[in-house]
Write a structure and sequence with these properties.
alpha+beta; 24 helices; five-stranded antiparallel sheet; 840 residues; Alpha-Beta Plaits; 17 strands; six-stranded antiparallel sheet
């Protein structure tokens, strides 16, 4: 939990690794995933680095794996998932893996080329068979018209195509794609000026393209023509439309003999194709079992060599030197990984790590688990915390779902959210293995624990509001009693009354409703007025407490970064300004709630209760308003004696805080600069002629508001502090008003839920006959869809975004700068996840 409160302490380390042990040492580093390497060769071209050839070899192996995977998926062969990720192969195993991949690729290519060649022959024979089948009726019709003998004498084969000598009559037969037939027919008509006769017949079943595997629909055609010149034109048109021409004998006997021969060859070829496909399936099935393992190993190898390119080679070329950021807690783990890498590689000289001092700003690393990762992502989306800065994610775990629940306070809707989050949490392993590519699902699944807590807290606030799908639950019995009619507010009495008027002085019993709101408020005419006041004041109370907590968190930053002067010059005036004005308004609310009641005396009756807002405005304007008057009773202006003096003192203190905020820090920096200049001059005189000692580097300080001001001119410091002062003073007003969104969204959600119940579900509940039950069945489906779609999804998203804004702006702006950069360790797990996301 310490890492959640503040980012972990980081150290900059130098690694000295022997070249023969570098590969296995990086393999161990990638497995533990807690080291971020720095690129020491930023000025070196990527193609001039030491391990560029090894990276290219890995790229070539990745290309082969992609080709193999495409072929495996083309045949719908199942690729089993890896149960346990393999480690990166040893350097000796890389050559064997590379040779095995090359052999596998060559075998699959040979099978593919053979299959394409056989499929091409099969397609040609199939098209020839269809040509002989579809053109037979055309020739039979011609034979019946002219007589068999005349046809035999007229048609003489010439160069594989039929051309007549008597009358120069001939024909060309073939197949063309079906979508090209209209254009093909028009072009034949144009080149021949109508002197050709085209007959066509569609092939019913689709034919498979041997190269792409796509299904193609084709049409058989026969073009009758006269003359050699027209024949050459027709062939050119056929070539232009990618039509395939086939020889077709002119006699029936020859056509039958050819058809029988083609059919026999197709049967033989089909057997060969099946055997080839079975062999290909067996080969691909064997490859598919190892494909994922090979992919993981190659990706790890590539990541290792890519990281080794960050290293420098020393002048003797016998040692690799690298720099890395590592958490201080994990230094022993990194040293053990170096030792293991050296022992596995068989190196006689051990590798070692040396922690070095630096003034550079380290990366920010907050160690998270599956529960806290979602909340940390919410904070990181605003900005990565500066190094060792207080991390708001720890408090967001509670405050985020609580503020959301105030706006989404319905126990029924909370149960839906809770069950959805519980489903994703209980079955997270199986859901993660499905690798659903939907972006919306990825967001929901990543924030499953946030949704779980939001639903749980919404159930709690829904119970406090006594709101379940816009209806109240009467568990303990109402505390309101009609003293005039001497009847208790039970179901019979409330159901028989059109409107109810509550008199707190007479109708309210001494026993309060134990938990939440009294259910009888559900049928009161002044329900909206009561809930408005209740939720509006509650939102102000919660908002002020939240902001006060945010200001107090800045103390932890000031103490840690040894800026204790900021406690006096920043924190104390800020917290006093907030407490003296807006926290005092909260105090007045509680005084009003406790002092004024219906059964109190005349001066403390609800009529004499002053308005908190009017009192606050008058306090800021130093004025007084006239007290309310009721017949002979004159009410007091203030809630207690001496309130005016207290308020004037509070305003005076708040006003004194403004010049402290505005000028305190610049004057302190000015005095500090003069003191440092005087000390440096004195020390310079003393140390003249003495050898300078190595300077001890202080702990690196984060950027942002915690940076030093030594090199900054005083004019900029005054301007910066003036902006900071004005921003804080104005933001206390705007941020307090911003928390009213808790009231607005809560009221809107409750009213929308009530309208949906009244205007939709009540249509089925209003009838006592059997027609009402049928209508209720239909209406409930519409109500459920609208509830899930509008109230849970849309209203939930709206409340989520408003809660996010309250944390980012109103809460975190009080102490959080967020100017750091993330810790990105070299980790095989991260590399593989990024590769999978890139493929998707």
């Amino acid at each position: 939990m310490g890492s959640m409160f503040r980012s972990e302490e980081m150290a900059l380390a130098q690694l000295f690794i022997q070249p023969e042990a570098a590969y296995m040492s990086m393999s161990e580093m990638g497995e533990i995933g807690i080291v971020q390497f720095r690129d020491l060769n930023e000025d070196v071209n990527a193609f001039q680095r030491k391990f560029v050839n090894e990276v290219r070899r890995c790229d070539e192996m990745e290309r082969k794996l992609r080709y193999i995977e495409v072929e495996v998926r083309k045949d719908d062969v199942h690729i089993p998932d890896v149960q346990e990720l393999p480690k990166a192969p040893n350097p000796r195993e890389i050559i064997d893996l590379e040779a095995h991949l090359e052999k596998t690729e060559g075998e699959i290519k040979e099978l593919s080329d053979s299959a394409v060649s056989l499929m091409s022959n099969f397609l040609e024979l199939t098209e020839l068979k269809k040509v002989l089948e579809k053109t037979e009726p055309f020739f039979l019709e011609q034979e019946e018209t002219n007589g068999l003998d005349s046809v035999h004498k007229a048609l003489i084969p010439e160069d594989g195509h039929n051309v007549s000598i008597r009358g120069r009559l001939g024909f060309v037969a073939g197949v063309v794609q079906r979508n090209r037939v209209p254009a093909f027919e028009r072009m034949l008509w144009r080149i021949s000026r109508g002197n050709v006769f085209l007959r066509q017949a569609e092939i019913d079943e689709p034919l498979k393209d041997p190269t792409t595997g796509h299904e193609i629909y084709k049409t058989v055609f026969v073009v009758f023509f006269q003359g050699e010149q027209l024949k050459s034109r027709i062939k050119k048109v056929c070539a232009g439309f990618h039509a395939t021409l086939y020889p077709c004998p002119s006699t029936t006997v020859e056509r039958k003999e050819m058809f029988t021969g083609v059919k026999t060859r197709l049967e033989d070829l089909n057997i060969v194709l099946n055997q080839t496909q079975d062999h290909r399936t067996r080969v691909l099935g064997t490859v598919a079992k190892e494909l994922q393992n090979w992919s993981v190993m190659v990706r790890k190898m590539k990541a290792i060599y890519h990281t080794l390119n960050f290293f420098n080679m020393d002048v003797t070329k016998k040692c690799l030197i690298g720099e890395c950021w590592v958490p201080v807690k994990d230094i022993a783990i990194v040293q053990k990984a170096l030792t293991d890498g050296s022992s596995v590689s068989g190196s006689s000289i051990p590798s070692f790590m040396n922690v070095i001092d630096t003034s550079e700003n380290p990366p920010t690393f907050n160690r998270t688990n599956k529960f806290t990762r979602g909340f940390q992502n919410l904070i990181d989306a605003y900005g990565i915390a500066s190094y060792r800065e207080v991390n708001p994610a720890l408090y967001t775990i509670i405050t985020f779902p609580f503020l959301f629940a105030i706006m989404f306070g319905d126990a029924g809707h909370g149960v839906i959210l809770f069950l959805f989050g519980l489903y994703m949490c209980l079955w997270e392993k199986s859901l993660a293995q499905k690798k659903i590519s939907s972006e919306i699902w990825t967001i929901f699944f990543g924030g499953r624990y946030i949704i779980l807590l939001m639903g749980l807290f919404s159930i709690y606030t829904g119970i406090l509001y006594n709101d379940v799908f816009s209806k109240s639950v009467n568990i303990f019995g109402s505390s309101w009693v009609d003293m005039i009619n001497t009847k208790k507010y039970n179901f019979t009495f409330v159901n028989a009354s059109e409107t109810l008027t509550f008199d707190p002085k007479d109708d309210y019993s001494d026993v309060q409703y134990p938990l939440g709101l009294d259910p009888v408020w559900q049928v009161a005419k002044n329900k909206i007025i009561f809930l408005n006041t209740y939720k509006m004041k509650m939102s102000i109370v919660v908002g002020v407490i939240h902001m006060v907590f945010g200001v107090c968190m800045s103390v932890a930053n000031f103490v840690h970064f040894k800026k204790k002067e900021n406690i006096l010059l920043d924190f104390i005036p800020q917290i006093l300004f907030l407490l003296c004005l807006f926290f005092w308004m909260v105090v007045m609310m509680f005084i009003k709630w406790f002092k004024y009641g219906a059964r109190n005396s005349a001066l403390s009756s609800p009529f004499c209760a002053p308005s908190v807002l009017i009192l606050f405005i008058n306090m800021m304007l130093f004025k007084e308003s006239d007290p309310p008057k009721d017949k002979d009773t004159t009410c007091e202006i203030f809630m207690f004696e001496g309130q005016n003096e207290v308020q004037m003192a509070l305003v005076f203190i708040a006003l004194l805080c403004v010049p402290v905020l505005l000028l305190g820090k610049p004057f302190y920096i000015m005095c500090t600069k003069k003191s440092n200049a005087h000390k440096s001059n004195t020390n310079g005189d003393i140390n003249q002629g003495m050898e300078l000692q190595p300077e001890v580097v202080e702990e690196a300080k984060p950027s942002g508001e915690h940076h030093d001001h030594e090199d900054e001119p005083m004019s900029e410091i005054f301007i910066h502090q003036a902006i900071h002062c004005i921003e804080y003073v104005l933001s206390t007003v705007s941020h307090t008003a911003s928390y009213l969104r808790l009231w607005a969204l809560s009221l809107a959600h409750a009213q929308l839920s009530e309208v949906l119940w009244t205007m939709v579900l009540s249509m089925g509940l209003g009838s006592d006959s059997y027609v009402g039950s049928i209508m209720l069945y239909l209406v409930f489906a519409a109500w459920a869809v609208l509830t899930l779609g509008v109230l849970v999804m849309m209203e939930g998203l709206s409340a989520f975004l408003h809660t996010l804004r309250l944390h980012w702006v109103e809460f975190m702006s009080k102490f959080y700068s967020g100017l750091g950069y993330p810790f990105q360790p070299f980790s095989f797990k991260v590399v593989l996840e990024e590769e999978e996301e890139g493929e998707e």
